Amino acid sequence: MSEWNNIPQVKLGLVAVSRDCFVISLSERRRAAVAESCGKKGIEIYESKVTVENELDMKKALEDVKAAGCNALVVFLGNFGPETPETLLAKYFDGPAMFVAAAEESGKDLINGRGDAYCGMLNCSYNLGLRKIPAYIPEYPVGTAEQAADMIGDFVPVARALIGLSHLKIITFGPRPQDFFACNAPIKPLYDLGVEIQENSELDLLVSYRQHQGDPRIAQVAEDMAAELGKGNQYPDLLERMAQYELTLLDWAKLNKGARDYVVFANKCWPAFPSQFGFEPCYVNSRLASRGIPVACEVDIYGALSEYIGACVTNDAVTLLDINNSVPADQYIDGIQSRHAYEHRDLFMGFHCGNTPLCKLADGAVKYQLIQNRLLENGGTPDITRGTLEGDIAPGNITFYRLQSSAEGTLSAYIAQGEVLPSPTCSFGGIGIFAIPEMGRFYRHVLIARHYPHHGAVAFAHCGKALYSVFQYLGVEDIAFNQPKGMLYKTENPFA
Q1: Mean pLDDT of 461-474
Q2: Are 282 and 389 in contact, with CB atoms under 8 Å apart?
Q3: Percent of the chain having pLDDT more than 70?
Q4: How many CA atoms lie less than 13 Å away from 199 in the CB half-sphere?
Q5: Measuring CA to CA, which residue among 400, 410, 286 is closest to residue 346?
Q6: How far is residue 403's CA from residue 165's CA, in Å, rounded to a whole number?
Q7: Which residues touch 423 (CB under 8 Å, ≥6 apart)?
Q8: Three-class SS of residue 457?
Q9: Which of 133, 338, 383, 395 has its CA 20 to 30 Å from the CA of residue 471?
């Protein structure tokens, strides 16, 4: 999908507001200083020279930033600010909006140079609430020009995710599996978020795949796969089939994205897929994920949605894993306990058959799906169950997270930061030993108590701050995290 980018590019617009009983030049001078600080920090931002004092100014400012191609808005309270026009900026702007206020600059200039934006932010927030207008407000939204630029920098990944969601289509193939009820969450909340969905039959996918037989592009894609895999290309005879499948998905995305700009997939991958396509789709799924086009396993629609949010926030590859198995005690004692400051219950293994991008594996190779080989090939020499991308996940920081709908159609989310340990798993699949502080309690009182499924999205960075802000902006009220010792969960027994 080289001809179109699946992750949005954020173009910020900066609009200053001014209360008409304050000196307008104060807000304009402070706005210019913020724009200058952004430039020094490498943050591209369009500085609108329209300063908003009233509703007519508000309309002019919106026209100005729209003409400049801005898709995210920073409303800057250079002084107290006009409550109605400044909040209407966010209401009528087609994209996410942030509000930030100017700190006073000097104790030597607190007469004509005092802006009272500290006070103005309170009324701004109150008016946003009255009008039910979502907005991004930093943790401490008052600062100097340099501090405001840092806050704007924090807004960029949040805005990128929000823009992406508002222009996203989730394409699925196949019914959600009967024995994976976790993947059967109601899809109505997707429409509430502004996300479109197109559900298709596995037969649609199979027909399209067969139509791509003999596609002249297959050889080039297979060559690219071979170059990427290197010594991990253990089944070179599979490459043409997998290349044909990759082209099938990319062409389907291009032809079916419709009015949307961005696409992700949630596809049925077993048990019928390998017998009809002749391979497992995992490696192809990993390649698309590395390009910002997540393909969630087992028709996990909210898994695909979660992956895409992480891809936008980090501007990097993500994956979807089972919160899979405990780490054996002997493995913990022999190889982990003396090297890392984690308790045994802080650890678990995250696993999937082979969808994690090669760039996130320590030493990846195309192999076969052991579990499906037992089921479909009686444990014999693998043929149709080949096509997984396997290896231990590379060590480093991660964020485990998910946005999910309940059976009642209410959105909730969790976020937990941790790391993948540089410790061999001694197992199969795309797998790693994950360490999350207080994971044992988090597992019991969030994942189990709040009925989350076994799939979790993984971003390969500590990005909980941005993810939390995204979920807040979307109106998710229940956002859980791995609470530290001494901070009890609602369901936690204080006497345990």
Answers
A1: 98
A2: yes
A3: 98
A4: 7
A5: 400
A6: 12
A7: 331, 335, 336, 339, 433
A8: strand
A9: 395
